[in-house]
Design brief:
The complex is a heterodimer of chains A (about 500) and B (about 325). Chain A has 17 helices and 24 strands. With about 500 residues, chain A is of the alpha/beta class. In chain A, β19 (about 370) and β20 form a beta hairpin. Chain B has a single domain (about 30-140, about 160-310), classed as ABC transporter involved in vitamin B12 uptake, BtuC (Orthogonal Bundle). The longest helix of chain B has 30 residues, at about 25-55. The chains are: A alpha/beta (about 500), B mainly alpha (about 325). The interface of A and B includes residues 96, 97 and 114 of A.
């Protein structure tokens, strides 16, 4: 084997699922010490591709060569033995076990019949020192912050002697600072000869850390480019097949009367822990207030409280002068649109058709129901119109919503919520897991709602989104608003610092 | 937990001493009976623990115990016709462990292959056990008596002798098994993998742990323990009776929950329930109060509800228990 032999080469990989071709003749090459970005919209086939490389899926056609030799897929266990590891988007860590126990699980050091905890701790310490990834082997994983948990995931791969590391959207849950740390770690790892496949849809990170980028579109590889020769615009164009406006065009806000005000708002979660601890906010008609923060700092509870989904423990919230009660329908009747963070759970009924989901908030009112009987022609008419106007890609309005891609599901919600006039729009992570083309579209809808006079409360963990949309930025940290900033005068770094509890 | 455990131990010793001063005969009787009654609950509770720690709810323990007692009785009863009573009893033990292990594998199979609801599958085992054992039940058979292994010398000690050193083999075995399961769960590779599979199966799957195989193995081990629990029932009864488990398989689930899915906790909780049982038996026997004996018989079940309600508030079961694992 010469040094020119790629670490991994995939040739003509094809994977079909009932009704769709998830990967169609995809080629991919990864060298030692190289970071390869894998870029594509949601549903472009990135996950399917890496699952074939990692041995979870069997390719229908094509071959995979590892160090120049053809391999067959025999499951994750075999892949790990061959030096391929994967850091999944949702951490694969057992919360009540220690760091060392999680790292050695599946390949435990044993002495006789006993599991050798001491040896496990020593091995983990040794590896963490060698790669400069500090962890305490005896810490219990569930007590660690997210950034450290991810470090444990990477150590898990290194413990198994990974020469090829696949990371599936690793930065989705990190603060900007943690993301920078991760990217530095990846560079160091690559310098030791590890080959890395880095999946993301954040162009900035691709440009920052990768050596080459392979772009997938609708299951096909549409090009591999050297990162040094790429720009955000050129990559985005490859991804969606047309040029994309990455900056949303918007005029300066013209805020008028306050629509939503909260005063000393306190909200508890289901386990009675106070997650919103005295929040004072004001969102005016015609402006977008962006709430920036790392997930889990009370955003969800704040949003659920002002939409009436969750009871307010103390303090109060008012919308157009009315006190918010623990009653979602009465809140909606004040003219509130709500785009929830978890669209599968809170925004849609998966087994219902697109049409039924589009009338989920109005099915009981005229013209969609008369004397308690549903009026299907009116529903169909509305659905046909909205699917067209909001560009929902679907075979029919009777298709169950669960079979749509993430971006199209979100468009169904946006269509339902923003196709009517609203006083207040509450949008929580409105473009999470949504492809670039749809992001652009959803952002434009939110701006349009603002320009029509709605007050918009935007919660997002994506700083790009906050900066693209917000007229004012409030940073939430541990249930409190720790800073209110003007997007024109602040910087990503300053916001990131507040998000991490500094500042 | 250690300090709580020590506190309870200390309290028990003090209470026993005082009670012994007041009435030595009855105290000794209740104490000895407590340990005897606890044995099947310990073994059955550990059956539940080994299953649930790997992510499968086993509500069929009652049925497993009943099948085990039935087959153990028949095995020993027929074997004794051609061999000595000790080998015949061993045949009974093997039959009991085998049938309960098969029932455990059945539960694992319905859950893993058929993706059946685990509560329903467990109920199937319970109903099948009642029907099958009643149908095939033949009166008039006898089995060799399970011997009492009293420890010479030690069993003469006041109170402690009768309480700890004058029991049948399955009672000693139950306490030994607690220690074995504890070490296995927290100090072996199997234990680490079991806990990982019960908490977060996909984490174990992605590092190559074969979770379905582990669940089959655990349900078989748990079944074998339920088989021993069934033999522990025969140890005191010496004959098979219809429905002789009398809800103990369900109380074992309560024991497991109150014991917080830890072997030491199962031991403590089983002793607590054993004590309730012994107390009600003694009160019925003594006719201490002018109350119908059924009321005393009710005590263990009422206390199960009360203690479970209190313990349930803070209990944290294995996170993935009862869920089907989706492979891709």
């Amino acid at each position: 084997m010469t040094n020119d032999t790629p670490l991994l080469e995939a040739r003509g990989l094809t994977k079909r699922f009932p009704g769709v071709i998830a990967n169609d003749q995809v080629d991919l090459v990864l060298h030692r010490g190289e970071i390869l970005g894998l870029l594509g919209e949601n549903g472009a086939g990135k996950s399917t591709l890496v699952k074939m490389l990692f041995g979870i899926h069997q390719p229908d056609e094509g071959e995979i060569l590892l160090r120049g030799e053809r391999i067959t897929n025999d499951g994750p266990g075999e892949s790990i033995a061959r030096g391929i590891s994967m850091v999944h988007q949702h951490f694969q860590l057992v919360p009540p076990l220690t760091v060392a126990e999680n790292i050695v699980l599946g390949a435990e050091p044993v002495r006789g019949l006993r599991f050798d905890k001491g040896a496990a701790n020593d091995r983990v310490r040794e590896i963490s020192e060698r790669y400069g990834l500090t962890v305490e082997p005896t810490d219990v994983v569930e007590q660690l912050p997210v950034g450290l948990q991810q470090r444990v995931e990477i150590l898990k791969a290194l413990y198994r002697g990974a020469e090829l590391l696949i990371l599936d959207e690793p930065t989705a849950v990190l603060t900007p600072q943690e993301t920078d740390e991760l990217l530095a770690i990846l560079r160091d790892l690559a310098a030791t000869g590890v080959g890395i496949i880095f999946i993301t849809h954040k162009l900035r990170e691709v440009l920052d850390v990768t050596d080459r980028v392979t772009v997938l579109r609708r299951g096909k590889s549409v090009g591999t480019v050297a990162t040094a020769e790429a720009t955000s615009a050129s990559l985005a164009e490859l991804m969606v097949g047309r040029s994309v406006v990455l900056r949303v065009d918007k005029t300066a806000a013209e805020p008028s009367e306050p629509v939503l005000t909260t005063s000393e708002l306190r909200v508890r979660d289901d386990r009675k822990r106070e997650l919103v601890s005295g929040v004072d906010l004001e969102v005016r008609s015609g402006e977008i207030l962006g709430i920036a923060g790392v997930e889990g700092n009370g955003q969800r509870e704040l949003v659920e409280a002002v939409t009436g989904v969750r009871p307010i423990h103390a303090g109060h919230a008012t919308i157009v002068g009315q006190r918010v009660a623990h009653d979602p329908r009465s809140v909606r009747e004040l003219g509130v649109a709500y785009i929830p963070e978890d669209r599968e759970r809170d925004g849609l009924v998966g087994v219902y058709s697109i049409a039924d989901n589009l009338v989920l908030t109005s099915y009981h009112t005229a013209p969609f129901a008369r004397t308690g009987v549903r009026q299907f022609p009116a529903i169909r008419q509305l659905a046909t119109k909205l699917v067209e106007r909001f560009d929902v890609r679907t075979p029919s309005i009777e298709t169950p919503v669960s079979s749509l891609s993430g971006g199209n599901k979100q468009k169904v919600i946006v269509a339902r919520e923003l196709s009517v006039e609203n006083q207040l729009v509450v949008a929580s992570q409105p473009t999470r897991g949504v492809d670039v083309g749809s992001i652009e579209f959803i952002h434009q809808q939110l701006i349009d709602a603002r320009d029509k006079g709605a007050a918009v409360l935007l919660v997002s963990a994506e700083l790009d989104e906050i900066f693209a949309l917000a007229d004012r930025i409030a940073v939430i940290y541990e249930g409190r608003i720790v800073a209110e900033l003007d997007p024109n005068t602040t910087s990503r770094e300053e916001v990131g610092l507040y998000m991490a509890g500094g500042g | 937990m250690i300090t709580l455990g020590r506190g309870l131990t200390l309290f028990t010793i003090v209470a026993l001493t005082i009670s012994y001063q007041i009435d030595d005969i009855q105290t000794t009787a209740v104490a000895a009976r407590t340990v005897r009654e606890a044995a099947p609950l310990i073994l059955a509770g550990l059956c539940g623990l080994v299953s649930e720690r790997s992510g499968i709810i086993n509500i069929g323990i009652e049925g497993q115990m009943l099948l085990a007692a039935f087959c153990g009785f028949l095995g020993a009863s027929y074997a004794v016709e051609s061999m000595g009573s000790t080998p015949a009893l061993l045949v009974g033990v093997l039959a009991a462990m085998a049938v309960a292990a098969v029932a455990g594998l059945f539960l694992a199979w319905t859950s893993i292959k058929l993706r059946m609801d685990q509560i329903i599958a467990g109920t199937v085992i319970n109903i099948f056990a009642i029907g099958a054992t009643s149908f095939f039940f033949a009166q008039g058979r006898t089995m060799p008596k399970v011997p009492n292994w009293s420890v010479p010398g030690l069993d003469e000690w006041p109170l402690v002798g009768r309480m700890l050193f004058d029991h049948g083999p399955f009672t000693y075995l139950a306490i030994l098994v607690v220690a074995i399961v504890h070490v296995a769960l927290f100090h072996t590779r199997w234990g680490l993998r079991t806990r990982a599979v019960g908490e977060h199966p996909s984490a174990a799957d992605t590092v190559g742990v074969r979770i379905f195989r582990l669940r089959y193995v655990n349900l078989a081990i748990g079944g074998a323990l339920a088989g021993l629990a069934g033999m522990a029932l025969l140890q005191s009864a010496s004959v098979f009776n219809r429905g002789m488990t009398n809800g103990k398989g369900f109380i074992a689930l309560a024991v497991m929950i109150i014991g917080r899915w830890r072997p030491g906790g199962v031991l403590a909780a089983a002793v607590l329930f054993g004590f309730f049982n012994a107390l009600q038996a003694q009160l019925q026997f003594k006719q201490a109060f002018d109350i119908p004996p059924q009321f005393f018989g009710m005590i263990p079940f009422v206390l199960t509800i009360a203690v479970l309600a209190a313990a349930g508030l803070s209990a944290r079961p294995p996170a993935a228990v009862g869920q089907h694992y989706e492979t891709e």
